[in-house]
Amino acid sequence: xxxxxxxxxxxxxxxxxxxxxxxxxxxxxxxxxxxxxxxxxxxxxxxxxxxxxxxxxxxxxxxxxxxxxxxxxxxxxxxxxxxxxxxxxxxxxxxxxxxxxxxxxxxxxxxxxxxxxxxxxxxxxxxxxxxxxxxxxxxxxxxxxxxxxxxxxxxxxxxxxxxxxxxxxxxxxxxxxx
Length: 178
Prior knowledge:
Elements: H1 2-20, H2 38-46, H3 54-57, H4 64-69, H5 71-74, H6 78-115, H7 120-150, H8 154-163
Helix pairs in contact: 2-6, 6-7
């Protein structure tokens, strides 16, 4: 009997706690585009990395924005600095229009749900376009990291990793260099 009372008390307590816990989405229902935060929108509109190039960044493929930030510490030559600026500008010229399209498609998806006009066909179509655009955006950022590594020396890549807090990881492959 004692165990039954303890179990019932525990069940009631857990149930009450679960009912009181707010949704992690609380407050997001008032967003213009429900799936995107202000930070997400700012990132898309400004061509920010948004962790899209993490596969490169964490595998010794530096990003041009941060290379420019560390130009002095990396001892970039004038040529490396100019080429890095070119890489960053190309990436921004590719990424910003794609980011704007992602915002438009996310707004469209939100409006389809808000209006109740969503069905499987327009859901699949809209999500397919968002997915395609997100892949293009990620590729634009990763291409910049790929190109950036080609113009740095292995020592500069290792220094970059150290400056970014990744430790003294050396550039391990023979393709790192100019």
